[in-house]
């Protein structure tokens, strides 16, 4: 194993340990010593990668952005039935929302944001930027005449909000289990059909 790969693995272990500790004890009650012990590395190694807890938290937010990358890769395709494209888009969104790692990272970020409203605003702003993939899809469908006119960001939030109401907030805030495959599909189908019944042309 190369030194670079070992360094990357240690960094990943530190981030995973921080997520676990922040989730269990909260940001303020978690020490860099505890993170080092949980990660199985020295405290010096932790500080070499992250000079402060705030930088570790910023890295956790970056993990949220990375998790949503597949949604950015989905683009609108003229000539392909819109319903089929929306179903695939929402299927990818559902996979993200039901991913345990993503949910763990989201719990940590949201808990810290509640205690620090300014950080919450920064987090929401950055998450909004990452949802540009869906917003861009909506905008392209509008330009192709397949959706009604309107603010693409607003319309995007309405569409994705249907999934989050069933497959994100109950799991993050109330500890409910992930939806089973049948329930996931029912939520996706209903959300897309309701969306098209209002915004479709």
From TrEMBL:
GO terms for molecular function: DNA-binding transcription factor activity; transcription cis-regulatory region binding. Residues 31-50 bind DNA. It comes from the Bacteria. This is TetR/AcrR family transcriptional regulator of autoinduction and epiphytic fitness. It comes from Pseudoduganella violacea. Residues 8-68 form the HTH tetR-type domain. The keyword Repressor applies. The keyword Glycosyltransferase does not apply. Keywords: DNA-binding, Repressor, Transcription, Transcription regulation.
